[in-house]
Design brief:
It contains 7 helices and 10 strands. It has a domain of 174 residues: Glycoside hydrolase/deacetylase (TIM Barrel, Alpha-Beta Barrel), CATH 3.20.20.370. α3 links the parallel β2 and β3. A 5-stranded parallel sheet has the order 3-2-1-10-7. A 3-stranded parallel sheet has the order 4-5-6, with no helix packed on it. Strands 8-9 form a two-stranded antiparallel sheet. α1 runs parallel beside α6. It has 258 residues and is α/β, with parallel strands linked by helices.
């Protein structure tokens, strides 16, 4: 954590980060933003934060009619990677059974065909994504199986701990800046940072120093408080690109000094 971080960062995270530094390690953080559909003012604001804080960003994009325009907009951002965010981002779960794009009755062949068609749409738009992000983080078993027969090499959902998906890599988000119960709104500094402290402690105690912690944002849903906190967080922490996560490259413990 950089020394210019707000006092609340030091109060909540300081002891845990000192334990990491004493052990000669630094947390691995990466950043995923969901639901990109088209160029927009919130997207411009997100990309500006990425540039200003030198924070690589994985942008989970939906295969909408505006996908080619979105790809062209992101081409000018070398630190931004586009991921596939579902087939059409349409909820197909029965009423009252949550949200998800793939239901239990879907055949593996159908899921394979949907995935293949969606990836081809991204190729036609001018990008070659290798990461798939299921909408609502609902990772159906058929998706993992279908990914093995595609150009997708990794899947990103939401998880407490590292999860294996066989020969398909998992790179999950763990730390959502928004709280969705009752409608999307800023989770709050204490809730967010306390969760980060628990995630850090879990990795330290299990010796999983290089297991990434995924920051999750949704630029279209941010209010002023969310944008302000995200700016502070990116200023305080070093974010790494997905391509550099495995194996984790060494970092100086001094980068974590509280």
């Amino acid at each position: 954590m950089r020394s210019a971080a707000p006092l609340v960062f030091h109060l909540i995270l300081g002891r845990e980060l000192r334990l990491w530094a004493k052990a000669g390690h630094a947390p691995v953080l990466w950043w995923r933003d969901d639901d990109a559909r088209a160029p927009s003012e919130p997207l411009d604001r997100l990309l500006e934060l990425s540039r200003r804080h030198d924070a690589p960003l994985t942008l989970a994009a939906i295969a909408s009619p505006h996908l080619p325009t979105l790809v062209r907009r992101v081409e000018a951002e070398p630190a931004v990677e586009i991921a596939v965010h579902g087939f059409k981002h349409i909820n197909r779960q029965p009423p009252g059974q949550g949200f998800g794009e793939v239901v239990a009755e879907d055949s593996l062949d159908w899921v394979r065909a949907q995935l293949r068609a969606t990836v081809m749409a991204f190729h036609r738009a001018g990008t070659q994504p290798t990461l798939f992000v299921p909408p609502w983080n609902n990772l159906a078993p058929q998706l993992t199986e279908a990914a093995r027969d595609s150009s997708i090499t990794a899947i990103s959902a939401f998880a407490e701990d590292q999860v294996s998906s066989g020969d398909v890599a998992r790179l999950d988000a763990h730390l959502d800046v928004l709280r969705w119960k009752g409608g999307g709104r800023f989770r709050g500094r204490w809730r967010f940072l306390s969760r980060l402290r628990r995630l850090l402690a879990r990795r330290r105690l299990s010796g999983c120093w290089d297991e990434p912690i995924g920051l999750l944002t949704h630029h279209l849903d941010h209010d002023a408080a969310t944008w302000a906190f995200l700016d502070q967080f990116l200023a305080a922490f070093t974010v790494r690109a997905r391509q550099g996560l495995t194996p984790a490259s060494p970092r100086e413990p001094e980068a974590l000094s509280a």
